[in-house]
Amino acid sequence: MRLAYQNRILLFILLSGFPALVVAMVLLWRDNYSAKVVWTLTLIIFVCWLGFAFSVFKKIIFNLQTITNLLAALREGDYSIRARSIGVGDVLGEVMMEVNAMAETLREQRLGALEANALLRKVMLEIDVAIFTFDNEQRLQLVNRAGEKMLAQPMERLLGRTAKELGLADCLQQSEANATLARSFPGGKAGRWEIRRSVFREKGIANQLLVLTDLSRALREEERQAWQRLVRVLGHELNNSLAPIKSIAGSLENMLNRKPPDWEDDIKHGLSVIAARAEALNRFMGSYAKLARLPQPRFQPLSVSDWIKRVIRLETRLNVNLSVSEDLIIDADGDQLDQVLINLIRNAVDATLETQGNVAVSWLVSDNCLEVVIEDEGLGLANTANLFVPFFTTKPQGSGIGLVLSRQIIEAHGGTLTLQNRKNTHGCEARIRIPLSSELSGTLI
Predict the structure, then answer these.
(1) Which of 109, 86, 110 lies closest to 98, judged by CA?
(2) Beta carbons of 291 and 322 less than 8 angstroms apart
(3) First-last CA distance in the chain
(4) Which pLDDT does position 362 carry in this prediction?
């Protein structure tokens, strides 16, 4: 049988002194000493041999047991025990120093992990979204306060129950990791919920993290803000038209009562002003109706080159420079894209006429997207914050819906419309990006 490590150490120590013992015994028993002397010396030699051997054995075993106890304390999570310093240059001392360094490192890591875990639990408890974690058997392992409130039960009654018992099985069975669901929960909250699922591993076992966010509050806030913006804009435009109409009507009433000289001409002029303001108000309401009733695009094959050249020919005030690229066929609504490009080129020409500059149009394919760029040499944009605010305009006769309508059309095509001042020169740059996805595929010809 294989001897234990400590027994092998003891055997090696005994064997290391055995040759000297044999030599001593041979020399002692060959000489003519009395039996009493021989046996006395023999006993002394054996006692010294065994005493030194066991002393060395215990010293080695004691140090190994000390290291074992230190490592056992670290395994149990007790990082307060330290080995006694033996000294620099000593092999055993270096081992003890490394054990102490490892204990200090583990202590700092454990402290950091505990602090991070405490912060995570605090944030999870206070966050205003419902968070649940389920094990591989779909049993609830963790829930925060928002989840307790949503299910109308304390944590103690929720933990350990299955998702089916809690009424959350349909949330875990969603085919998409991020989805929305309209339903109600025992906590009295009914509405639209955003569901986010992810998988994490704990001790090698897959667990599921479920996050439910109430979208009703955010949607109500967005709806409230939209109504406020709408009322503010409509109120402003109505006041701008009704105030002069009211003032002129009052003046006309006084004029009819007094009938001064040429009062008929003044009444005609006043009525014409009222008619003009009423027509302007009618145009405004028509523009709003147009913005609110934008139809869905009808996708058909469209040549990018023909589309851009056709729109450029409509602009007669200025020769627009066109950088011709390889033609591209995309699926899009040509009529709606015509309206977008007409608006952008008209704005670019309006800005450029003030500075006697040029307008350039180009297109390219980048990151599986069609990019159409319109650059002008005008004065640039003074206020970029309100570019896409409905009815905001800097033109005296502008309606303020051109850019808003253009962006809605491009977004309906799955793309983006951006406007920004040009870098290193004056003027503005409008950039249209339309993705060439599987549904909106593009083909070079």
Answers:
(1) 86
(2) no
(3) 84
(4) 93
